[in-house]
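[Meeting: bench + compute handoff]

Bench side (C.D.) handed over the final construct sequence. Compute side (W.E.) agreed to return the predicted structure before the next meeting so the bench team could plan truncations. Sequence as handed over:
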Amino acid sequence: MSGQIPLDLPAATALGRADFLPAEANAEALAWIDRWPDWPVPVSAVVGPEGSGKTHLLAIWAARAGAMILDGRWLAATELSAVLDRLGGATRVALDDADAIAGAAVGERALFHLYNWIRERGGALLMAGRTPPARWRVALPDLSSRLRTAHVATLGAPDDALLEAVLFKLFHDRQVAVGMDVVQYLARRMERSLSAAGAVVDALDRRALAAKRPISVRLARELAAESGWTRGDDRD
């Protein structure tokens, strides 16, 4: 995929358990989330490529566990005192983009204290990142040793079957009827990520409404040619 489709007003993403589509690529991570509260360790991580569903899984767990959701990029730029104020008495935390703290002294110290806070109070910390925590390039030795103890559940990039299911659901959520030929065309050519699926559906829906045309393979091919988001052969 050589370019992203710009979205002016992206549709709200449904992040409930019923909205998560099980597949081979996410089976391990989904099983870990569904195992809550029977977790043998206080700190764990779901890891996988961009758009594989990590944020969705964090949201499912946070809703089930009553956990506070924080962002690693915020943690990496926030003094510890402010982090502690935000944390309050929370003992269950979901940390998205947790690997963003790597290399940021402020963020590493904050995660180190958060880790200890959670463990000492019998809470739970679920992190999301692109790679396992043990591979994050952190400079703080004490944090590095703690991250190596985290349980890791891995997500793979979605395959065509999962992308097709996600595309159908996204169109259905918008009450837009599309044929299987359109969905298969998109799944074979778009970036293999769930975020890209949302962008493609949004862009096609906008184009169809503006042109007063049904969503078809021809319309999808036109949009792909303009936006440059196809991968592979586009002759059929």
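W.E. noted at the follow-up: Strands lie at 43-47, 68-71, 92-96, 124-129, 151-154. C.D. will use this when planning the next construct.
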